[in-house]
Amino acid sequence: MIRFLFRSIGLICLAAAFILVIYDGTKSIAGNNVFITSVRGLWDTLNAASLASLRPLIEGKIAPFAWDPVFVSFLSAPSWAVLGGLGMVLILLGRKKKPLIGYAR
Predict the structure, then answer these.
(1) pTM of the predicted structure, to 2 decimals
(2) Could you give the count of Cα atoms lying within 13 Å of 22 in the half-sphere of its Cβ?
(3) Beta carbons of 94 and 16 less than 8 angstroms apart
(4) Contact of 10 with 94, CB cutoff 8 Å
(5) Looking at residue 39, what is its pLDDT?
(6) Separation between Cα atoms, residue 97 and residue 64, nearest integer Å
(7) Which of 6, 1, 4 is nearest to 89 (CA)?
């Protein structure tokens, strides 16, 4: 059951990454410039209030240095790369185990 959940969420993440690649590509072609949607831009578009409330949570609970070098670099990454990487990891976690050769079960 959990493998099915990992695979389905991974497939949704890969589909969203593909949509974001197409979105960035058409925006770049139309503007004659390279446009890359960052995670921060996507997060602001979807829910800006949660991003604003996340900073005090990370600085207070984890560590003050966790926000600026770590999480800010994550927020500046391309959104299609983050979603694609997450989708690949989830699909690999949800794959079926290879059967053992030569062992009886």
Answers:
(1) 0.81
(2) 6
(3) no
(4) yes
(5) 93
(6) 41
(7) 6
